[in-house]
Amino acid sequence: MSGFAADWLALREPADRRARDVGLMRRASDWLAAAGQGATVVDLGCGTGSTLSAFEACRDEGTPQVRWRLVDNDPALLDAAAERARNLGVDAETRLVDLAVIDDIPLEGARLVTASALFDLASRDFISGLAERIVASGAGLHAALSYDGSTSFRPDHPLDGIVVAGFNRHQLRPKGLGAGASLGPGAARALAGALQAQGYLVELADSPWRLGPQDAALSIAHVDGMATAVAELGVLDPAELEAWRRMRVDSADRSETLVGHLDLLALPG
Ligand SMILES: C[S@@+](CC[C@H](N)C(=O)[O-])C[C@H]1O[C@@H](n2cnc3c(N)ncnc32)[C@H](O)[C@@H]1O
Q1: Is the shortest distance between the CB of 50 and ligand 1 below 6 Å?
Q2: Coil vs helix vs strand at 146
Q3: Residue 4: CB within 6 Å of ligand 1?
């Protein structure tokens, strides 16, 4: 069990789907299609298979079928991803792997490596080690939905700034993907730099969550997560933090929240 509950992944998936940059997904799909029938996509930290599902939704009729290799360290999430692939009629295998052991990441035969909501958990070591392995394999990389550190709310609250700053600091704590501190909001740009330095052509695109009243359940879960993280830092008086959380929860059905993410596409130059 990885700590990423299937119900949290299900709650965020509609907002993730809306946020993904369609242009980068289409270019990644074109790169796959150019390899012909049966090209392999390796999805790192696949969770319940949201990336497979998003790519299938933007696949044009008649384009070659691809083979998915779904990789995660959580067997329950892998089972859910395999079931989703079966339901979509997609050819997929699952691999139970700890991505932290970079040499064990099963990239053999990959045309494209994908990931979503993963690399902000990674350390600099992990990012540079993975970039090296991807370049050595010749695969492209599509990495969606890395948090970029920007979060804003409407209506605002006087503590928004300090809560977001605290949350971003908490994001830098080690998350087990590589040694030491996570890169958190800096991860997508670090990955872009590491791949560019090795000759890859890299594009970044904004892919923010735009949460409105219809996303109240996700907004509440997001705010609860932020408050829990900031409480662990001890930088705010607990009663003040709770007043911020309460205001955000009570106004979730009439608020707007923008949570910045970056999508990345990197292809061999
Ligand atoms: C935030 S979830 C994203 C899941 C999915 N990509 C999505 O967008 O819905 C992060 C995923 O990475 C997986 N993960 C985290 N650390 C991992 C590790 N060291 N090895 C393998 N998988 C890991 C988790 O189990 C989880 O499925």
Answers
A1: yes
A2: strand
A3: yes
The proportion of the chain whose per-residue pLDDT surpasses 90, expressed as a percent, equals 96
Domain containing residue 28: 6-153+176-212+259-268
Residue given tokens 């360290």 in the structure block? 73
- Tens digit of each residue's pLDDT (9 = 90 or more) over 192-239: 999 999 999 999 999 999 999 999 999 999 999 999 999 999 999 999
Instruction: Give the dihedral of Cα atoms 149, 200, 141, 225; nearest 10 deg.
Output: -10
Determine whether the shortest distance from the Cβ of 46 to ligand 1 is under 6 A. yes
Distance 4 CA to ligand 1 centre (A): 7
- CATH number, domain of 188, equals 3.40.50.150
**CA 269 – CA 267 distance, rounded (Å):** 6
> What is the pTM for the complete model shown?
0.97
Ligand 1 pocket check for 54: Cβ under 6 Å: no
Joined together, the tokens standing for residue 116 give 């979503």
Rg (CA), the chain: 19
| d(CA 73, ligand 1 centre) in Å | 8
What is the number of structural domains in the chain? 1
Distance 214 CA to ligand 1 centre (A): 26
Whole-number Å distance, alpha carbon 182 to ligand 1 midpoint, is: 14
108-139 pLDDT tens trace: 999 999 999 999 999 999 999 999 999 999 99
Residue ID of nearest Cα to ligand 1 atom 27: 47
Q: Residue 252 falls within a domain, yes or no?
A: no
- For residue 49, tell me if it sits in a domain: yes
Residue 263 belongs to some domain of the structure = yes
Q: What pLDDT digit, counting tens, does each position of 132-150 carry?
A: 999 999 999 999 999 999 9
